[in-house]
Specification:
By secondary structure, the protein is α/β, with parallel strands linked by helices. The protein has 12 helices and 8 strands. An 8-stranded parallel sheet has the order 1-8-7-6-5-4-3-2, with helices on both faces. Strand 5, helix 7 (165-182) and strand 6 (186-188) form a beta-alpha-beta unit.
């Protein structure tokens, strides 16, 4: 599936505008075509994918263990059915070289995706952050594919051990500035939850700041927005919750011979079929 230039421009321009407010862009992340349509039907202005959720749904552990081709194929199915802009989480890029990562991003551009998340991550087999220069090079290469393709640069500075919280924040800020200079359109710092730190980073970087809220007890969107967040992602949280429900349904059926949990909020076959066009 290849989107036309006009279709791509329409989606990417719309996606950029969603980061301009007045309310933050809330992404209830999807992992396949039907979850994308369910989220869209609920009122999503855009669809973000969850790399972990997509991997789990395809039978792989998270962490770029699924083949890049399976990622691209799953994203193509989402882009085919979604009527709103789609942003794809590609982790570190699903490639060992900048060219390989650029090829993955190019396939997403061609199918009409509006943007990506791409992260620095950690050194293989360690809990040390990868050098920021690697992600800077990849951002610059992807930027050449399409000037409006939204590159959301993620740093995992809050996912590695730190003895000094101030140093952790300083490293996140340093990397955010490097990624912005390389051509990123937004900055994502999962693990950063302090309103004070969110406000300080948002003020210092001046690109839309993405925060993560896919965990129990996450602050409400209004509080995160007041702190300066322009984008709020739920990541794999929705699928984790859905899988918890599947576990409860199965446990109730096996242990009690009852099906009450399954019947609560169940969508009809007609409703689900109605999410998709009549023609293939």
């Amino acid at each position: 599936m290849r989107a036309s230039d006009a279709q791509r421009q329409h989606k990417t321009d719309a996606f950029h505008r969603l980061h301009e407010g007045p309310a933050p862009l809330v992404l209830v992340n999807a992992w396949d075509a039907v979850s994308a349509r369910i989220v869209e039907r609920a009122g999503a202005a855009a669809i973000g994918t969850t790399s972990a959720g997509m991997a789990w749904s395809l039978g792989y552990a998270d962490g770029e263990r699924m083949p890049a081709g399976e990622l691209v194929a799953a994203c193509a199915r989402i882009c085919r059915v979604a009527g709103v802009p789609v942003s794809v989480d590609i982790e570190r890029g699903f490639g060992d070289s900048t060219q390989a990562v650029r090829d993955v991003a190019g396939a997403l551009v061609d199918m009409g995706a509006a943007g990506i998340n791409i992260e620095d991550g950690t050194q293989p087999g360690t809990r040390e952050l990868a050098p920021p220069e690697v992600l800077c090079e990849r951002i610059a290469a992807i930027r050449k594919l399409d000037a409006r393709f939204f590159i959301n640069a993620r740093t995992d500075a809050y996912f590695v051990p730190w003895d000094d919280p101030a140093a952790r924040f300083g490293e996140a800020l340093r990397r955010a500035r490097l990624y912005a200079a390389a051509g990123a359109d937004g900055i994502f710092v999962p693990g950063m939850s302090s309103p004070e730190e969110i406000a300080e980073l948002a003020d210092a970087v001046r690109l839309p700041l993405n925060v993560y809220a896919g965990y129990a007890g996450a602050p409400p969107a209004g509080e995160l927005a007041r702190a300066g967040a322009r984008r709020i992602s739920l990541g794999c949280g929705p699928l984790q919750s859905a899988l918890g429900l599947v576990g409860r349904i199965a446990g109730e059926a096996f242990a009690q011979g009852r099906f009450d949990a399954m019947g609560e909020g169940m969508l009809s076959v007609g409703e689900i079929n109605g999410l998709f066009p009549a023609t293939p």
